[in-house]
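Quick note —
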Amino acid sequence: MKKYFSIFIFSFFLNNYSLIAQQPPLEQQLISLDLNFFLNKPIDTLLAYIPHSDSIFVSSTEPIYRGAGLIIEYNQTPFLWIYINIYEPQYITAFSPNYLNPENAWPFSLLKKEKIGRILIYKYATTLINEASIQ
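Predicted structure written out below.
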């Protein structure tokens, strides 16, 4: 009985290890994304497709009349982050006098309904590894 149990445990770990080993690194997943597919679609569409992150926050954009943007960070090595701009605001007011406090100026619940105008994926602080834009 012990012998069969040991074989079962060994095969279980071997199968799980092979499933984990087949997953490409996060950087490769983000580089290989066809970002053009997500343009002019709600931010929610992209959020459902990309790997999960616990670090998602609203930011003000440049130029300020565009309103809010969304930043998704992956705190690992290498540090990766996604910057999402909206195209034509429909659910939020583009210019908010409260732009210095973006989480209050543009609630995430409304922002994720907005259509994507530009997606930039960075490695470290400034290395652009993937991008797409309507303009």
